[in-house]
Amino acid sequence: MGYFFVIPTFLLVAALFFYPLVKTIIDSLYKSSLVFPKPKFVGFGNFIDILSDRTFYEILLQSFIWTIVVVVFQFLLGLGSAFLLHNPFPGRDVVRAVVILPWIVPGVITGMLWVLLYDPQLGMINHVLFKLGIIEKYMTWLSDKKTALLAVIFVAIWKGFPFSALMYMAALQGVNPELIDAVKIDGAGRWGQFFYVVIPEISPIIRITLLLTFVWTFNYFEIIYIMTKGGPGNATHIFPTYIYNLAFTRFRFGLAATYAMITFIILTLFSVLYMRELEKRELLD
Amino acid sequence: MDMKTRSREAVVKAVRYFLIVLLLLFVLFPFLYMVSTAFKAEEDLFSAPPKFLPRGPTLSNFQQALQPKFIRYFMNSFIVTIGTTIIVIAVALFSSYAFSRLRFKGRKFLLKIIIFTQLFPLIVIIIPIYVLYNKTGIVNTHLSLIIAYLAFTVPVGVWMLRGFFKGIPYNLEEAAMVDGCTRLTAFIRVVLPLARPGISATAVYIFIVTWQEFMFALTMLTGEKMRTLPVGILDFIRQYGVNWGGLMALSTLITIPVFILFLVLQRQFISGLTQGSVKG
């Protein structure tokens, strides 16, 4: 009977994951483009091309900078906000809902809103930073190679940190108050309580949230697509945006499939870690 | 409490409130600017340096945001989101029940596949799905988008709901079955009512994710009539520049209901999130 109930789910999984994955593996072994629409079998030729192309290493480096910086700051901001908003105060529910807002508003809106804020002439950011004396001249944040990646990273942090905050808020609710009382009696101060009780208690959730946000950020598409389309040059391209560009702008399906396979291999590594974490905590039983 | 600890408590409290205000500013500043831009008239929109507040507030941007085509995009989004959410809950209810209650061979392996798909790079599947849709001719329909969305929402739904079901003691069902219920009626009369908060938390999560989805919508919906809001809102980008007033007015209109929805449901959602996805 168990099988009967799970069949619909796995039919979907087979059609929407298994089939496309196999198709991508096959495509990655062919060369095709708009000029030569008939795919030609090249074996691992695409992989070799990519590994000897400088662009690949740029994208790889940018993908990891983007992902790691975003994840670390989402963790810090998320945990910080969860602590600030844990104990009740008047208006806490409204404050919490406001803090969650960036996460529930469509990424397209977030992207466009920040394009306006970053605008060299019309944007508030230049105006405010200039008035405060932090910058000496108006910056072209999104079209300057030196600042573009940082600018989109900042937006991704702003947009995504509420999810981490939500997870840690929920985790803090689960911490047994008696444990805190126990170390208080032993003379632990605020920081002592924090490091000896709270952090160990919520560390499983921290690990799971870090893994989830890592994978999601690595796969994140719309902020960059909306704000810079990967430019200037390739300065803000990460794997998903670059692959999308290869496939749907340049119609290089074979090359796109090969890049997709590389992404898949990198992320499988993290899936395995995530699964081990769940298994260790007997969450799969 | 002596004077010293009391004044220290007061300092800690003041610091805490100060940090909360900072956090609010960090989150709210862009949104406030969005709302203020929505009320700006043409000459205010293009004033450099920018003004934070509109000089002569106008509603004309909202008139543009409420054009028939945007109402249609809204309806498209609504149909796709509601359709996806209902199908996911229906499909996931059965699977998650099986995963939490029934023992069968390969259960753990299948569960691993579910988790694996949650971390899957969607960029890998979008190209083959697009090609497949083109061949079968269902590209550019609501259904094509709903099916694509099921790919990444059903697994999450199964995983979250399974967590909720596991939190409901099995002996409640057993007792109902002793009293003459079948497995199905025990499920409907005993388990479902208890799982309601969990089901709504899952539904809200799926709603939020589907409502803002952009990549699939951009790729699969080639015709203007079928566009969902996240893609349709880009109509405000024109060749000679962006119509910021209209764009921000529509953004404001989209944001307010989502905010209210979350304000109402947040407590359920926060406790639901841990029960379902973390505590297992």
Can you lay out the helices and strands and say which pair or pack?
The complex is a heterodimer of chains A (285) and B (280).
Chain A: H1 2-27, E1 30-31, E2 40-41, H2 45-51, H3 54-84, H4 92-104, H5 107-118, H6 124-131, H7 148-173, H8 177-185, H9 190-219, H10 222-227, H11 239-248, H12 253-280
Helix pairs in contact in A: 1-12, 3-7, 3-9, 4-7, 7-9, 8-9, 9-12, 11-12
Chain B: H1 3-38, H2 42-45, H3 60-65, H4 68-101, H5 107-118, H6 122-136, H7 142-166, H8 170-178, H9 183-211, H10 215-220, H11 229-232, E1 237-238, E2 241-242, H12 244-278
Antiparallel strand pairs in B: 1-2
Helix pairs in contact in B: 1-12, 4-7, 4-9, 5-7, 7-9, 7-12, 8-9, 9-12
Question: Could you walk me through the main structural features you see in this protein, from its secondary elements to its overall organization?
Answer:
The complex is a heterodimer of chains A (about 280) and B (about 280). The longest helix of chain A has about 30 residues, at about 55-85. Chain A has a two-stranded antiparallel ribbon with strand order 1-2. Helices cover about 70% and strands about 0% of the residues of chain A. With about 280 residues, chain A is mostly helical. The model of chain A has no long low-confidence stretch (mean pLDDT about 85). Chain A has one domain (about 45-280): Orthogonal Bundle (MetI-like fold), CATH 1.10.3720. By secondary structure, chain B is an all-alpha fold. Chain B has twelve helices and two strands; from the N terminus they run H-H-H-H-H-H-H-H-H-H-H-E-E-H. Chain B has helices at about 5-40, 40-45, 60-65, 70-100, 105-120, 120-135, 140-165, 170-180, 185-210, 215-220, 230, 245-280; strands spanning about 235-240, 240. In chain B, helix 1 (about 5-40) crosses helix 12 (about 245-280) and helix 4 runs antiparallel to helix 9 (about 185-210). At the A-B interface, helix 1, helix 3, helix 4, helix 5 and helix 7 of A face helix 1, helix 4, helix 5, helix 6 and helix 7 of B.
